[in-house]
C-alpha cells in the first residue's frame, strides 16, 4: 500500500506531464498561426478589410409619409442639398389626386432637412401621390393613402 505522500507525488507528476503536453500543444498552435499569417496564399481566404469615409448627403431625398395610411394628418420628410437648392421656388413638393391633377404645391424655402405636415380638409378617401421636384426635375414620387 502506498502512503499518502507517495500518492500526492504520483498525482503531482501526472499533472506536470499534462501541463507539459498542453504547453507543447499551445506552442504548436502558435507556430501554426504565425505560419498561416505569413503565407500569401492565405490572404485569399482572409477576411477582407475596408476603410471608408462617410461624407454628407449629396442627393435630394423624399421620405414616405408617416403614418401611412393616415386619417387626419401625416408627415413627410425631405432633404435638399445646398448645392442643388434653387431659392427661386423651383424646389417644391407637388400633391396629385388619383387622376393626376395637381391639388397642392408646396415651395421649399431653404436647403437642408425639412418636414411638411399634411392635414386634410374636404378630401375624398383614396390614394394620392406626391413628388419632389428640384430645378424642375422629378426626384421621386411616393403614394399616400387617406382614410376617413
CATH architecture heading of the largest domain:
Sandwich
Into which percentage range does the β-strand content fall?
A: 25-35%
Structural class: alpha+beta
Helix amount: 10-25%
What average pLDDT do the residues reach? 85
Task: Let me know the CATH homologous superfamily of the largest domain.
Answer: Macroglobulin (MG2) domain
Q: What ranges have pLDDT less than 50 throughout 5 or more consecutive residues?
A: none
Q: Give the count of structural domains.
A: 2
Main sheet makeup = 4 strands, antiparallel
Shape: elongated
- Radius of gyration (CA) equals 35 Å
Under CATH, the topology of the largest domain can be stated as: Immunoglobulin-like
CATH class of the largest domain: Mainly Beta
Count of alpha and pi helical runs: 1
H/E element order: HEEEEEEE
Strand order of the largest sheet: 4-3-6-7
Q: In whole angstroms, how far apart are the ends?
A: 95 Å
- Number of E strands: 7
